[in-house]
Automatic annotation (TrEMBL):
The family this protein is said to belong to: Belongs to the FBPase class 1 family.
Cofactor requirement: Mg(2+)
Protein's recorded name: Fructose-1,6-bisphosphatase class 1
Organism taxonomic ancestry: Bacteria, Pseudomonadati, Pseudomonadota, Betaproteobacteria, Burkholderiales
GO cellular component: cytosol
GO terms for MF: fructose 1,6-bisphosphate 1-phosphatase activity; magnesium ion binding
Amino acids binding substrate: D114, G115, S116, S117, N206
Length: 333
């Protein structure tokens, strides 16, 4: 089968948004190449594999590939005339574009390497990104310029570096899949209008946190685990990759529900995942695929950020299951 490519699809999008996506996709090609080279990545005997030996702003052990991926994104965006600034999981403060701070109409937010604790084990990782309007074009973007709810996104996407590298994009008119041809480095358009099935018998949650979960989640998971002799009267299957991109892509392709709820493990943090560069872009993509994305008590896309790195509870996926969980937040018994 002959496929058209990313350029052909971008040609039909709003030009400044297309330009941002083109540069983000170029960075993902470089990151994909570094991931696929594993322990042999890097030049002059300097491997880009392994831990940096430092803790990032999130309190996590930073991997060399976290840093490299962040640099790839920054390098690509610095060349993009439609982006005035960007914010990254790996950096405490936003970056003002060196060349386009006062001309760019958009802001980019990204998780340069999602699932990076998996990289040494050769498990799938990815990149998540979001494009927001710059509400004060002409002025250099400050941190306050990024404090916009996910509903304002003009585009979002992710790249998954798995057995194949795929790019999933939306500009608000449904979901597109592109697959990277590793020989030509071209993104070929492989699916359009992807819709997530509404019913599912597959859920994903880090069950080691069970003792910290809220009551609605305790109820939901215990009913799934009870299987065909429990109140759900059917058997469920469970998956946990610990790479959100891989979990979301599995849900895109065969349905399912993914939960990283609020828990009492670290009482000052409402959940594990970051609103700006994990929850919001994935929520946007979920809604574009006909699925749902909530905190338990509200739509994720309506959460207004207070700080760049704030965390949020995440419950996303097949609408029948997410709606059931919303019901359990209304009545946990
Ligand atoms: P990152 O590697 O960008 O810091 O994100 C990891 C996130 C997400 O991808 C995944 O779903 C979750 O952390 C895994 O959490 P556990 O360590 O609790 O499994
Ligand atoms: Mn991290
Ligand atoms: Mn992540
Ligand atoms: Mn990351």
């Amino acid at each position: 089968m002959n496929h058209t490519d990313l350029e052909a699809w971008l040609a039909a999008q709003q030009p400044a948004v297309a330009d941002a996506l083109r540069h983000l996709a170029q960075a993902c090609v470089k990151i994909s190449r570094a991931c696929s080279r594993g322990a042999i990545a890097g030049e002059g005997g300097q491997s880009t594999h392994g831990a940096v030996g430092e803790v990032n702003v999130q309190g996590e052990n930073q991997q060399k590939l976290d840093v490299y991926s962040d640099e790839c994104m920054a390098e690509a965006l610095a060349q993009c005339s439609s982006v005035a600034g960007w914010a990254s999981e790996e950096l405490e403060h936003p970056t003002v574009s060196p060349n386009h701070a006062t001309t760019g109409r958009y802001l980019a937010v990204f998780d340069p390497l999602d699932g990076s604790s998996n990289i040494d084990a050769n498990i799938s990782v990815g990149t998540i990104f979001s494009v927001l309007p710059h509400l004060f074009p002409g002025a250099e973007p400050t941190e306050a310029a990024f404090m916009q709810p996910g509903r304002r996104q003009v585009a979002a996407g992710y790249a998954l570096y798995g057995p194949a590298t795929v790019l999933v994009l939306s500009t608000g008119n449904g979901i597109e899949f592109f697959t990277l041809d590793p020989v030509s480095s071209n993104w070929l358009h492989t699916r359009s209008g992807v819709q997530i099935r509404t019913t599912t018998s597959e859920f994903a949650i880090n069950a080691s946190n069970q003792r910290f979960w809220e009551k609605p989640i305790q109820r939901y998971v215990s009913e799934c685990v009870a299987g065909d002799t429990g109140p759900r009267a059917r058997n469920f299957n469970m998956r946990w990759v610990a790479s959100m991109v891989a979990e979301v892509h599995r849900i895109m392709t065969r349905g399912g529900v993914f939960l990283y709820p609020r828990d009492t493990k670290e009482p000052r943090k409402p959940g594990r995942l970051r609103l700006m560069y994990e929850a919001s872009p994935m929520a946007y993509l979920m809604e574009q695929a006909g699925a749902k994305a909530v905190t338990g008590t509200m739509d994720l896309l309506d959460v207004v950020p207070d700080t760049l790195h704030q965390r949020v509870p995440v419950i996303i996926g097949s609408s029948d299951e997410v709606e059931r969980i919303i019901g359990y937040y209304v009545d946990p018994n």
